[in-house]
Amino acid sequence: MMKTIPVLAAKHLGVIACPAGATLFDAARMMDEEEISSIILVDETGHLRGILTRTDILRAALNHPDDWQQQSCSEWMTPEVVTVSPTASLWEAAQLLQEKHIHRVVVAEEDDQGLVPLAVLSARDILYHLVRS
Hints:
Layout: E1 17-19, H1 24-34, E2 38-42, E3 48-53, H2 54-63, H3 73-76, E4 83-84, H4 90-100, E5 104-111, E6 114-122, H5 123-132
Parallel strand pairs: 1-2, 4-5
Antiparallel strand pairs: 2-3, 5-6
């Protein structure tokens, strides 16, 4: 069943994003308020630049206990984000999670300036559909 379900059927459109140059404190506050474990980092035109997770912020806080809050997200983000197209299936996304040993992929659409993030699909989202199919 998962082979035929498109990724966007499993997730509502929209991402919680912040500028790649924002501070870790700003990103951490947004993640806490939205109750999410990662945040998408974008440039001024809304194109994908990276992803920042709770673990990245924790690593920064442990390495820079006195000033982690002022550190830039771009210094701690993962710039090589694993993405899938909006037409990919849940099956394809699940395979990527397993192959890359990651917890989430970004659903993104390419335009003439780069990738525009549309949604974040997590292992939890896929598990939800596995249980219900």
